[in-house]
């Protein structure tokens, strides 16, 4: 694989890993926000208007920004009626053919996201609630997440293509990190 | 082209592309966006992202990552070890007793968690090695763990019922309570099956050797203390929710915190455990939420074709079917689709079509939610596609082959179909508890 592609794969992997490993802790933040709501209401008798929307925004940021890293973790299920019986090479061949489908979906998702974000910024769109937070920040975050997912999917396509063609690709930054770690010792 | 043809084309292209083994969310999203662009023209490109805002407004979906987190935390916290020991001692002297104990363990895990992941993780890591070491039949115990852990989505709390409640617009409290007795019914049927089978073929589930049974009554009573923490977690989560002290989503936050506290209390919470739990939670949550995101778009395009009215017209007017035939056809179609399709996607795509018909036929949508969930449990275990199958394959020790896993589910699927039929014939099994509780 050309050097540009190898660099692309390495950097996209690293960025998504860093983003994903940061947002994965948001599950604890969601838990704490909800606990705070329960304690504030039952002990101090106060209810906050920002709890629900804040948690909704946290969830959206959590799964969309974490999407790229979840692709790396390989948790997305597939129908493996035939897939599980194929060799690694055949899997890579088929995946490099069908990655285009996922990339197409993510591009359409991104186009809709951008148009929705532009609208939210132009008209200062707010949520219909008593708290009425501005909606563009979360939409921008969602768009960034979709871009990261798209970049990761393209990286995965390159890795699959390399495997399918039998070309070497150092698309495993994890291995490299380990090697560098050993060299440092 | 008329709408029926387009609808069929959408389904057919989805099935065809899924066979390539590409990720579910990608295939569903692709078919949805292609048809959105082709059918809607301008504005069609907005549909996939609009689904993200439908999902955004589904506040109860927050329970999903929190329950997944809770499940992994519970299996790491080691409270299942004590529970297992308790059942081991109490049921060891009965033929097949350890398998029966495992089913009861799964019922308790199910009462603390809303998915089958926790039950599978605990079953495969704690119960399975013990059962194999004691000479239990490997095919039977593999089935016990898969069937037992599937109770996680029926016995409250349940994420599947939350998703159903969102789509069918039904109250979560009613749905959760409706799941209690069908869940216990299924557990009893599993136990009856194991007990009868082991009574007839004692070699499948040997009695514990005499020296291991020498446990004093004082010791036995002390072991019952293992039930205290699970009960506290159950009460803090489902109890407070049903009493109206916490909202649904808050209760999942309380449960997640409870599981974390249990792990701290038992001195199991190391940095590695925390990192592993949080990472796995992200992976599984993203898998579910991206599938729901894509399926919502698919559902919206499908709905725009007038599929609900088309289906109702076809069933009720054109074919003139009676209500029960329609209901049975729906369940059979769910069962068949469930073997191939992802259950979450199936719920998001098909439930909006079926639920209005169920209501129009005069059936109770709460009861139907329970029927759907039992079907989902079966779908979790039936090859080629099922979450419990995947988890079992990933976690099972090497002596259990793929064929063993496939063979193991056969009797349990039959038992579950019997259970499903009983709940269909006697809706009160599901409905009396919510009616009793909310009538007060």
| pLDDT averaged over residues of chain B | 89
Principal-axes geometry of chain A comes out as elongated
**End-to-end distance of chain A, in Å?**
30 Å
Largest sheet, strands/sense/barrel of chain A: none
Proportion of residues in helical segments of chain A: over 70%
* Through-space gap between termini of chain B: 54 Å
DSSP summary: helix tally of chain B: 21
**Could you give the order of the helices and strands of chain A?**
HHHHHHH
The assembly state of the depicted protein chains is: heterodimer
> Into how many domains do the coordinates of chain A divide?
1
Question: Which protein chains make the most extensive interface, counting residues with beta carbons within 8 Å of the other chain's beta carbons?
Answer: A-B, 59 and 65 residues
Walkthrough of the structure:
The complex is a heterodimer of chains A (185) and B (440). Helix content of chain A is 75%, strand content 0%. In chain A, helix 1 packs across helix 4 and helix 3 runs parallel beside helix 6. Chain A has one domain (3-75, 87-171). Chain A has helices spanning 3-23, 26-44, 51-65, 67-73, 88-122, 136-165, 173-184. Chain B is an all-alpha fold and 440 residues long. Helices cover 78% and strands 0% of the residues of chain B. Chain B contains 21 helices and no strands. Chain B has helices at residues 3-19, 24-40, 47-57, 63-77, 79-91, 97-112, 117-133, 138-150, 159-168, 172-200, 217-223, 228-242, 248-265, 271-304, 307-318, 323-340, 343-360, 365-381, 387-395, 402-425, 428-439. The longest helix of chain B is centred in the middle third of the chain and has 34 residues, at 271-304. Chain B starts with a helix and ends with a helix. The mean pLDDT of chain B is 89.
Describe what is shown at a glance:
The complex is a heterodimer of chains A (185) and B (440). By secondary structure, chain A is mostly helical.
């Amino acid at each position: 694989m050309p050097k540009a592609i190898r660099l692309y794969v390495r950097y996209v992997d690293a960025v998504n890993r860093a983003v994903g490993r940061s947002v994965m802790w948001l599950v604890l933040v969601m838990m704490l926000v909800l606990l705070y709501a329960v304690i504030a209401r039952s002990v101090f008798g106060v209810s906050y208007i920002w709890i629900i929307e804040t948690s909704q925004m946290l969830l959206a940021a959590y799964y969309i920004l974490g999407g790229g890293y979840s692709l790396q973790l390989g948790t997305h299920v597939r129908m493996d009626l035939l897939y599980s019986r194929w060799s690694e090479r055949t899997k890579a061949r088929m995946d490099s053919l069908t990655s285009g489908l996922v990339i197409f979906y993510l591009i359409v998702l991104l186009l809709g996201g951008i148009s929705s974000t532009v609208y939210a910024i132009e008209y200062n769109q707010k949520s219909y609630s008593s708290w009425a937070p501005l909606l563009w920040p979360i939409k921008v975050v969602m768009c960034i997440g979709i871009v990261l997912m798209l970049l990761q999917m393209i990286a995965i396509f390159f890795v699959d293509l390399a495997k399918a063609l039998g070309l070497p690709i150092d698309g495993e930054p994890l291995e490299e990190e380990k090697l560098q770690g050993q060299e440092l010792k | 082209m008329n709408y029926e043809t387009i609808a069929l084309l959408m389904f057919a292209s989805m099935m065809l592309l899924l066979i390539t083994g590409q990720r579910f969310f990608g295939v569903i999203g692709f078919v949805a966006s292609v048809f959105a662009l082709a059918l809607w023209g301008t504005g069609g490109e907005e549909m996939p992202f609009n689904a993200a805002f439908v999902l955004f407004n589904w506040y109860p979906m927050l329970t999903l990552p929190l329950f997944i987190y809770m499940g992994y935390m519970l299996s790491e916290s080691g409270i299942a070890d004590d529970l297992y020991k308790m059942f081991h001692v109490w049921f060891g002297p009965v033929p097949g007793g350890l398998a029966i104990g495992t089913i009861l363990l799964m019922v308790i895990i199910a009462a603390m968690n809303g998915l089958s992941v926790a039950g599978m993780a605990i079953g495969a890591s704690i119960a399975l090695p013990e059962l194999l070491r004691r000479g239990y039949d490997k095919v039977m115990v593999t089935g016990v763990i898969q069937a037992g852990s599937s109770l996680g989505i029926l016995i409250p709390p349940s994420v599947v019922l939350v998703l159903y409640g969102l789509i069918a617009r039904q109250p979560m409290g009613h749905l959760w309570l409706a799941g209690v007795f069908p869940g216990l019914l299924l557990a009893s049927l599993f136990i009856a099956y194991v007990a009868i089978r082991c009574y007839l073929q004692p070699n499948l589930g040997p009695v514990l050797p005499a020296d291991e049974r020498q446990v004093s009554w004082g010791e036995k009573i002390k072991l019952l203390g293992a039930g205290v923490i699970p009960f506290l977690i159950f009460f803090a989560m489902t109890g407070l929710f049903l009493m109206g002290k916490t909202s649904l989503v808050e209760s999942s936050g309380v449960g997640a915190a409870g599981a974390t506290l249990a792990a701290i209390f038992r001195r199991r919470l190391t940095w590695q455990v925390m990192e592993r739990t949080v990472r796995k939670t992200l992976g599984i949550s993203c898998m579910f939420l991206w599938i729901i995101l894509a399926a919502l778009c698919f559902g919206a395009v499908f709905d725009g074709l007038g599929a609900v009215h088309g289906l109702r017209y076809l069933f009720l007017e054109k074919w003139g079917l009676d209500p029960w035939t329609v209901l049975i056809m729906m369940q059979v179609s769910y069962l068949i689709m469930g073997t191939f399709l992802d259950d979450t996607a199936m719920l998001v795509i098909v439930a909006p079509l079926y639920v209005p018909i169920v209501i129009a036929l005069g059936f109770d949508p709460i009861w139907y939610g329970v029927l759907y969930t039992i079907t989902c449990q079966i779908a979790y275990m039936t090859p080629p596609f099922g979450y419990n199958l995947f988890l079992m394959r990933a976690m099972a020790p090497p002596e259990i082959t793929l064929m063993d896993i496939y063979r193991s589910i056969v009797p349990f699927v039959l038992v579950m179909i019997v259970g499903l039929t009983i709940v269909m014939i006697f809706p009160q099994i599901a409905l009396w508890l919510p009616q009793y509780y909310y009538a007060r």
